[in-house]
Amino acid sequence: MTAPLTPERFAAETGVSRETLAKLETLSELLVKWQRAINLVAANSLSDLWRRHILDSAQLYPLLPPHCRTVIDIGSGAGFPGLVLAAMGVPDVHSVESDQRKCAFQREAARVAGLSVTIHAQRVESLPKMQADAIISRACADLPQLLEYAYPFVSPSSWCLFLKGQQVERELTEAGKGWKMQTERFPSRTDPSGTVLRLSHVEPLRPHRDER
After folding, report:
1. Per-residue model confidence as pLDDT tens digits over 47-76
2. Annotated binding residue at 186?
3. Is 124 annotated as a binding residue?
């Protein structure tokens, strides 16, 4: 059994600064504290919090577009990956989550850790249209649905980064029936069966509701 990842080992693996590590430690401490009252994440994931949530989120950072400024995190839950990417230096993170209690945690975490995050306590379908350098998501929906959610925020230069599990091939096949895109795959650093999809030049094969 793999030993839990420590903050020190995380820093060694990712090369984050002491300042960034301090922000992430604050975030992890608050998560443990709030989890006692609110079910923010799977309870069994807390025994390896730094691998299951912090590193799982941080692995997206080097895959973001060059000079990435604006990121939209769809269905962010307790703020992963968005809060972690904000701690690592993304200047304009928009976290979209409809669960009000999870949004309350995100607000407190962003305030205490000093993170630049705008929290949208609503469903992504009701979010005003904006353009982002990257649209990200973890454990939110199957790929065809994620592309529907993401498309209003996609520009010709946008990238989508989605953390996916064992069903990635099936999801790509299904998505290919309604979308064209350039696809890159990266093995997950935290899950042997996981994949990070990086999609670019995302376009629907048929007119999209936002284009009619």
Report:
1. 999 999 999 999 999 999 999 999 999 999
2. no
3. yes
